[in-house]
Amino acid sequence: MFHIFQYRPLRLITQTSLSSMYLKLMLSRPVAFAQIWKSWFSSHSLLGNKNIILMGPPGAGKTTIGRIVGQKLDCPVIDIDDDVLETTWNMSVSEKLQNVGYEEFLEEEGKALLNFSASGSVISLSGSNPMHAAGMQHMKKNGIVVYLDVPTAVIMSRLKSMAVDRIVGLSAGNSLKDILQFRKPFYKRWYDIRVFCGEDVAAEVVAEKVLDAVKRYQDSELETFISTRSSRSGRSIEKDSRKYFSDVVVQGLAPDGGLFVPERPLPKFTAGEWQGLIEATYIERAEVILERCIHPADIPASKLAEIIGTAYGENFSCSKVAPVRHLAGNQFLLELFHGPTASFKDFALQLMPRLFASCIPRSCNYLVLVATSGDTGSAVLDGFSRLHDTDKQRIAVMNFFPEDGVSPIQKSQMIGCQKENAWSVGVKSDFDFCQTAIKQIFTNSDFTGFLTVEYGTALAAANSINWARLLPQIVYHASAYLDLVHQGIIPFGSPVDICIPTGNFGNILAAFYAKMMGIPIRKCICASNENNVLTDFIRTGIYDLRGRKLISTFSSAVDILKSSNLERYLHLIANEDGQLVTQLFNQLENQGHFQLRKDLLEKLQQDLVAGWCSEEDCLAAIHSVYSTTGYILDTHTAVAKVVADRMQDRTCPIIISSTAHYSKFAPAILRALRIAEINQNPLSQLHLLSSYSALPPIHWGLLETLKKTGNGDHQVCAADMGVLMHHVETLIQNHFM
């Protein structure tokens, strides 16, 4: 067996030598002792007996970066090509490849890895090592695999400057770019940590990133979550109140009634890192962004990449997943309706169920509760119904929606999306009642405790109060900006405005988070319909529900008066003052209003502007845009379009979030297009719309769902907490017992 335990002499520090060193240095130079001890302890605790294994394509800089990392840690450095393969074969790697050919070379290379052993070292793999499964499994047993993810364009440029014209797998029928793309899945299979290198940056900078990433990997305590209502003693929070990502995904709502937020700021990407994602696909962008937000102790990076690939792969009808389309002038549409249920909710709810299944313990069943004002319901039902059969046996979902507060097509869709582990219940009330009822169920410890003891079942939430619902939305706001750069509309660094139809404040909060992470968003424009409580609040600082009644509008998904995610934003601008947030939202609950301090209102108005749209203006916008462009907006996007027209100053592009497909709101769309007689059958309405040959075409998934639905049944109940709790218990009995 080929062993390398040290590449240069290492000092073995025993208890005796430590004591001797301690006495001498403390007597002479106590500061020097502290520095030496700190340096030794840092490298020892970082590596221990583990190896840092650098992996990536040819030209990623593995050898150079490995040497720098080794120097910083004062540990052995091993280059597989130079120190293992060529030593074993007694010839150069290129000679071996030429002698035995591609397939035999991979096998010989893998055998060399299997016969190799090292400890406490920095190891630079060859570019083709990850293609040998057994060899990589052997290496991972005692190492942390760091994937140096360098954009393909940068790699191509480097290899050209190095005059590299031959790598493993390159033949007359394959280009260098083809080989690099072919290898990516192999790298993604094995890595523990991704270090995204962005543009062509110095090796010293990348080495520091590697060290930071390894430290993060080994210390999950760095990334904890707190409640928006957590009280601080000085600047500290009780350790017991801190949660990890896997905890907050499962729990949804904090025990004190607040919402979970990261204790530390979200990671900020450099301009170079963002620019490195300009050529990337949506899935690749999602992987890089979400890996930085989800600690690998909660979900390993390679597992997360697999989940993202499944969620945004075949389930979306557009290969770009979230394409950006020019509408007119400086306005662009971010199309968020290409998922299976035709709304932006699919971006979170194709991903969140898989994250949830990865985080929950195997010893307990879970019932996921969700309230919807329209689009969330079908997205939740569809997402959880796509889980593996073994997961569906232990995870069920119940969706509450206002029976008379959604469009006929939305209701048909929710009925059609019911599966063996997913059910819908219509409630004779509005969305605010449904959402409040779920919060009350979660905070009813007697009821939740009874379900756990009696049925072995815990409750979880899938509304946007769940952090795993909010996090994926950051990706599409960042991706939209990068697409504008990629299309040559703006250079990177130029600002954009974003206008979003807003009800529960989650979507616009995700845009603000993208801004915090380094995307140059100037203003987030909040677009309301006639339920314009948010517009009034952003303009005045007064959140006032007194005397307000919910108005049923054409844009039902934003028919909301209590915006849950606003609490997260206020917690942020109030410097995480949980006591203030508790005071404000208790006052809202008990008195129906609250008012922000002047300094907080000034902060808010630096980030947000707001406007609202009447029903007449909404329909007029749909008609006007179709008449001039042939494009049909849905009712929510029309609300945002009207507000964008009023609020923008035309000094920069504005991205309007198109949050749903117009097919879901066919009666309103047909009315806007001035069709005199409208058939009440949802399927007939869609067929009529399809005859217009408009852009975008009728949504494929929605049409298929309605064809299957027919006269499907669903349960309807009164707006009574006792009745809702009975439905919850009955479902648990039927599914899990």
TrEMBL record:
One of the GO BP terms on file: amino acid biosynthetic process
Keyword Amino-acid biosynthesis among record annotations: yes
Keywords: Amino-acid biosynthesis, Pyridoxal phosphate
Pathway(s) the chain acts in: Amino-acid biosynthesis
UniProt domain Threonine synthase N-terminal: residue ranges: 239-312
GO function terms (MF aspect): pyridoxal phosphate binding
Pfam entry (one): SKI
Chain positions found as N6-(pyridoxal phosphate)lysine: 345
Family, per entry: Belongs to the threonine synthase family.
HAMAP family, per the entry: Shikimate_kinase (MF_00109)
Listed name of the protein: THNS1 protein
Gene that encodes it: Thnsl1
